[in-house]
Amino acid sequence: MARTKIPHLVSLLAAFVAVSVGLGLIGAGLMMPLAGAGGSAARATVDGFNNLDDEWTANPLAQQSKIYSADNKLLATPYTSRREVVPLNKINENMIQAQMAIEDSRFREHGGIDVRGTSRAFFQNLQSDSTQGGSSITQQYVKIMLQERAVREGDSDAAEAAVEQTYSRKLQELKYALNIEKTQTKDQILSSYLNLVNYSDNTYGVEAAAKRFFNKHASELTLTESATLAGVVQSPGRYNIRTNPEEVQERRDVVLDRMLSLGWITQAEADEAKEPSVESLVDIQEDEGGTCSKASDPYFCNYVIEYLKTMPELGENPDERMQAVNTGGLRINTTLRRNWQQKMEQELKERVPTSDSGVGAAGAMIEPGTGKVRAIAQTSEYKIGLQDATSQYSEQSWSVPFGYGGTNGFAIGSTAKPFNLVTAVQEGMTADSTVYAQPTSSTSPAVFYTNDFQRGCTTVDPWPVRNAGDSSGGGAMTLAQATKGSVNTAFAQLASEVGSCKIADNMEKMGLRTGNGEKYGLAGSDDNYAISNLVLGSDSSTPLQLASAYATLAADGKYCAPTPIQSITTADGTKIKLNERDCEQVLTTDTARKVTHMMFGALEPGGTAGSNPSSALADGREAAGKTGTTDDSNQSWFGGFTPQLSTAIWVGTPIDTFPMRNINIGGQFYADVYGGSIAAPIWKQTMDYASRDMETVDFPDVGEDTDG
């Protein structure tokens, strides 16, 4: 038994000698008898202690980032742990004294190591195999900071080493503590410590703890609240304020007794502070904003998080970027206009109630010329961890692409036709140019073949084309008329004349891709497109992508990639320089304006969204747009824009597709659901609301000078 204790005793003695020498408590001569007792182990430990690294650099403390809307409303607080850093003068003196009393009452007297505490721990450890006890506030600060640094760097070995109970770790910790005491003031050390330590329930730092548990700032903490928090630090898992208030109360009273024994409070103050139960004191606050699952705008929040993962300004890879978001204390200002988004969501849910099984609706609004995303909304309720999404509950956004927390999208129907118009104008056609529309009926569709279309990039099985409602729609008509009536056979003929490959190129240039990020319209290979995708929108995309592509027309041919980020500021107030907006002039101004004017027709009387009901904007505000409905009426759309805003609305079947025919949606019966039936009226109400305080700006006339 005695033999097994000798190596342990020697290492203890060696460590004690090393620390004593480091503190200047034992000189070289006085050391020799002790060194003799410990032999070469003690001498080696002293030498090792003197050679230990003592250069200390404290990383910035991890703290919560905050995401704000464009009108400065807090949307969410992404974090891995709750923390808000405050200066010492923002922490109540009650809290400062309570923490020192229970953790290191001689903190302001010693030089980083509490000699009495260390000596006491040394002699206690002689009786056991323990290496516990004796740590000053400065030593605790070193240990916790080393652990947090390792965790942030993803170094699990270093994180484990930072807290393992070994003498080598203790000695390094002591060496750092001595250096810190030489380079920082006591107030600086205490401030860092109080902003660092764990106060239970994933809450770090006294400001976050005061808000979390008492709904107040650290500067407002009472004596009993301060003692409650101070007692937790010894064992945050055991003394969890939220789940174990009885043990926390016992620990609080220990803190108060310690403060009394030190003469820092009176007996009357201690008695008064012990009166209320911890359970009665605590006022647990859920995080303001919270993570995305708790945000008031969860789908937009999730889109922002996924977008931040793509930003090189925040790190070299997605993991580094998320670390910056979760621990960097960033202020992230977004482009979201909450009142516009709330109006969009209201209109979506009024016309397509969440409770209507099988159907759903979503929308996106973007600012032409900047790409700023102003709103995204949908009818489903946000719910994470679903094995299978439904039309009522979904974690995925129906408004944004898959890579940003969305889906692959939905077939866009005739909203694809404006890209055909762009190509026609580039080929020299105008609104008055004539195109022939083959007549159709329910039994006799117009049929197109491979030889009818541009070779080299288009796949066409015999393609039967009908017009909406099985109307004949036959004969010669102008491009403007074909657009106003959305005549399918006219656009099929147009595509055969202008070149299907060119249509696909324009879709790509204007930012229209599928929800999973592929080129729109592909039939399987990189250079092979299905003509039905290019003309009648049989391929899938999302409201955000369609709104963005249409915004290119609104901005006189300038495409700007969508962005939800306005600015990002670091915890110390430094503004992060963001890359330039991803904008490019992809169409000539003349082309964009000619196509825009042809798209007026959809909202005019007799247009697909111009009557029964009319979706023209209020007060005569000019707008251009296009309806879209798939062949089986399982998806319907309206995309439209003014010079200031571009919005796309989708109404359809998000999970299991079925024809929306002879159906009740929102308490109204529809024989067939077209783009003009529900999507266009939602678009109108949303755009009217967002535009109500904007100057009325008309589109320039075709041929008008750009600066005119």
TrEMBL record:
<dbReference type="InterPro" id="IPR023346">
    <property type="entry name" value="Lysozyme-like_dom_sf"/>
</dbReference>
<dbReference type="InterPro" id="IPR001264">
    <property type="entry name" value="Glyco_trans_51"/>
</dbReference>
<dbReference type="InterPro" id="IPR036950">
    <property type="entry name" value="PBP_transglycosylase"/>
</dbReference>
<keyword id="KW-0378">Hydrolase</keyword>
<keyword id="KW-0573">Peptidoglycan synthesis</keyword>
<keyword id="KW-0121">Carboxypeptidase</keyword>
<keyword id="KW-0961">Cell wall biogenesis/degradation</keyword>
<dbReference type="GO" id="GO:0008955">
    <property type="term" value="F:peptidoglycan glycosyltransferase activity"/>
</dbReference>
<dbReference type="InterPro" id="IPR001460">
    <property type="entry name" value="PCN-bd_Tpept"/>
</dbReference>
<dbReference type="GO" id="GO:0030288">
    <property type="term" value="C:outer membrane-bounded periplasmic space"/>
</dbReference>
<dbReference type="GO" id="GO:0006508">
    <property type="term" value="P:proteolysis"/>
</dbReference>
<dbReference type="GO" id="GO:0071555">
    <property type="term" value="P:cell wall organization"/>
</dbReference>
<keyword id="KW-0645">Protease</keyword>
<keyword id="KW-0133">Cell shape</keyword>
<comment type="similarity">
    <text>In the C-terminal section; belongs to the transpeptidase family.</text>
</comment>
<feature type="domain" description="Penicillin-binding protein transpeptidase">
    <location>
        <begin position="365"/>
        <end position="687"/>
    </location>
</feature>
<protein>
    <submittedName>
        <fullName>Membrane peptidoglycan carboxypeptidase</fullName>
    </submittedName>
</protein>
<keyword id="KW-0511">Multifunctional enzyme</keyword>
<dbReference type="Pfam" id="PF00912">
    <property type="entry name" value="Transgly"/>
</dbReference>
<feature type="region of interest" description="Disordered">
    <location>
        <begin position="603"/>
        <end position="637"/>
    </location>
</feature>
<dbReference type="GO" id="GO:0008658">
    <property type="term" value="F:penicillin binding"/>
</dbReference>
<dbReference type="GO" id="GO:0008360">
    <property type="term" value="P:regulation of cell shape"/>
</dbReference>
<dbReference type="Pfam" id="PF00905">
    <property type="entry name" value="Transpeptidase"/>
</dbReference>
<dbReference type="GO" id="GO:0009252">
    <property type="term" value="P:peptidoglycan biosynthetic process"/>
</dbReference>
<comment type="similarity">
    <text>In the N-terminal section; belongs to the glycosyltransferase 51 family.</text>
</comment>
<keyword id="KW-0808">Transferase</keyword>
<keyword id="KW-0328">Glycosyltransferase</keyword>
<dbReference type="InterPro" id="IPR012338">
    <property type="entry name" value="Beta-lactam/transpept-like"/>
</dbReference>
<dbReference type="GO" id="GO:0009002">
    <property type="term" value="F:serine-type D-Ala-D-Ala carboxypeptidase activity"/>
</dbReference>
<feature type="domain" description="Glycosyl transferase family 51">
    <location>
        <begin position="76"/>
        <end position="259"/>
    </location>
</feature>
<dbReference type="InterPro" id="IPR050396">
    <property type="entry name" value="Glycosyltr_51/Transpeptidase"/>
</dbReference>
<feature type="compositionally biased region" description="Polar residues">
    <location>
        <begin position="627"/>
        <end position="637"/>
    </location>
</feature>
